[in-house]
Amino acid sequence: MTAGSPSVLRIGAVGAGRMGAQHIENMMNTRFVEVAAICTPMEHELEWSKKTAPDAKLYKDYDDLLKDQNVDAVWLSSPTALHKEQVFKALEAGKHVFCEKPLAMDPKDAWEVYHKAEEYPNLKVACGFPRRFAPAFLEAAKRIRNGELGEIISIKNTCSDMYNPSEEFSKYIKVSGGIFLDMNIHCIDASLYLLSQEKEKKPVRAYATGSTKVYPHFADYGDVDNAYGLVDFDDGTIVSVFGSRDNQHGHQTSVEIYGSKANLTLHADPRSLAVDIHDKNGSRLVNAKDQMALFSQAYADEVAAFRDWVLKGGETPYNLKDSAKAVSIGQALQHSVRNRIPVTIESD
């Protein structure tokens, strides 16, 4: 830690819903991180915050939080539609920013956030993609950097969420932005992270198709429940993405990286524990219920990584340009699956 730098990162958490609550709990379990304040307009979230973080100052208004001199950084777990405005205001107030994915729904907004952050070189702005902190992905990145795979030819991603027939889930899907912007954007960002270990590559074209065999009403939202996407890059590299909303056994993520010298497979099975069960029903493994269970440690590690980046500086897996690229790719794939046409990816 440099001389004169603060020893604790004081965070103002914005939003205490499903993701926000998980982040707040991770912050409270991370050394040299203080949950200094929590901001939410929702009464039930304020009640939860009082019980969970009794020392945190509570706000209903985001602008009031930004005036708090005991807050060094804001952690945005708010609706995506608010991200751009909230990031802008935080930077103008002199706060570091962690923003949940996606950075925005619209690529234009995402790139405006990226360029706004460039205007504040002394402030850190990160977008939350926990796979960048998962051991398997860190190991793969190291091997790519070392040249063990040779030239990367393609990356194949699979990401499937557990079947959820609830009305609440359908309401969420309606405003989620679509399968590629909501769920598979994790695959897109992870691919950008892995590819960047070799060199920066520019996505140029997207193709996608999908179906609504499980949730027919998703079509009313311009979305699908199962989808395949392909992304071409300027050097000929291909990234494929498969996403499903109807896995019966829980969440599953897997990645296959094909190089000219070697291949890597990450998360080949969906186990959440190194436990196999053998009984009268046969043999089976313990599955992760959702992505947060499979990557629980990575979600915790990204808090520590953000703390270290703000307090100490230096290199970090966070990459805001990739976060903006991911929105451009995700939106292009979403447009392609809705219209069944190839789409040129508009970068910055």
Automatic annotation (TrEMBL):
Q: What is this protein called?
A: Gfo/Idh/MocA-like oxidoreductase N-terminal domain-containing protein
Alphabetically list the UniProt keywords.
Oxidoreductase
The UniProt entry's GO CC annotations, sorted and at most eight, read: cytoplasm
Give start and end of each Gfo/Idh/MocA-like oxidoreductase N-terminal domain.
9-122
**Species this chain originates from:** Trichomonascus ciferrii
Could you list the residue ranges that cross the membrane? none
Q: Which Pfam families does the record cross-reference, listed alphabetically?
A: GFO_IDH_MocA, GFO_IDH_MocA_C3
What are its GO biological-process terms?
Answer: NADPH regeneration
Residue ranges constituting the GFO/IDH/MocA-like oxidoreductase domain according to the UniProt record: 137-264
Report the GO molecular function annotations. nucleotide binding; oxidoreductase activity
User: What family, per the record?
Assistant: Belongs to the Gfo/Idh/MocA family.
Q: Which InterPro entries match?
A: Gfo/Idh/MocA-like_OxRdtase_N, GFO_IDH_MocA-like_dom, NAD(P)-bd_dom_sf
Q: Which SUPFAM superfamilies match?
A: Glyceraldehyde-3-phosphate dehydrogenase-like, C-terminal domain, NAD(P)-binding Rossmann-fold domains
